Structure prediction request, 378 residues.
Amino acid sequence: MKISTQAVQLGIGRDCKTGSISVPICQNATFRHPALGETTGFDYSRSGNPTRQALEEGIAKLDNGSRGFAYSSGMAAITGIMTLFKQGDHLVVTEDIYGGTRRLFDRILTEYGLTFTYVDTTDISMIESALTESTKGVFIETLTNPLLKFADIPAISALCREKNLLLIADNTFLTPYLLRPIDLGADITIYSATKYLSGHNDTVAGLAVVKDPELAEKVYFHHNATGAVLGPQDSWLVIRGMKTLGVRIDRHQENAIKIARWLKTHPKIKKVFYPGLEDHPGHELMKKQSKGFCGMIAFEVQNHELIPQILKKTKLISFAESLGGVESLITFPEVQTHADIPLKLREKLGINNLLLRLSVGIEDAEDIIEDIASALQG
Prediction:
């Protein structure tokens, strides 16, 4: 069964008593026991909730993993997975990673004795050279935020198997519809479900999928013990959003390639980052490993004065953080999503004062192009 079909069918048939097509929202904190020593399978909603379970089982199926976990945010999911590591452990991490992830790693988790080395994970030799005797894992973004670099997951996985390391893949930009990291060798997949999975900019959520059942039991213990679980209302919203995942991603991509090609022709645009373009460094590799190129575009303008002009003048496109919703959004990474990264490092990575990140929505592509063109005119 195709992933798009599986997503549409998520949760159907769970309510056998009423035959409800939509998963019921089980707004419960606690559950009644039939008798001493007996349980319905649910005791307390932090440990398990029927609505959240429908989402967790659904994402595990879509990602071809053994078990899924729903967290209160994408950052909560990353934090939860990081509790698998202990003081003295070292991880190799994608260098141009989301600023919030780097803030968690550098400013919080280092206080607990974890260490991190950031490298260009599109270069397997750089990952290998960063390994130490203390390295326990590799954390990658399958498509990086915001520069859209694509990592060779099977190659990284082979290295991790050889060195007995966990491979954790943040697959937020691509979703299981385009790429399943577990099928390519990853041990754990993480999502900010706030983005493409829920798809409507109306909820904050995180998901993780674990390949190995034994490791999944450990993740469940940590998930329950730390308590950063997703509530039933938000679980239902993510399920609702995931049902249209296939048709939304198709439209995001259809629009994105049109807009990226148009941007390349505009005299006020200096550079365009989109893996669907034939001259993108990761284009050919993505064609082999992914079913598509996603709906994210980054681009540099010719001069910084155009940045505030575009952010103020766009009408259809909203100047707002986040991404992956049906509405088009534009952000300025240097002062928003990646502001916590030191200036010199941002400059080294190419996250500069000319760079904008566009989350292409599902509006008509010509309307989006017209909006950008009008804003560029001033």
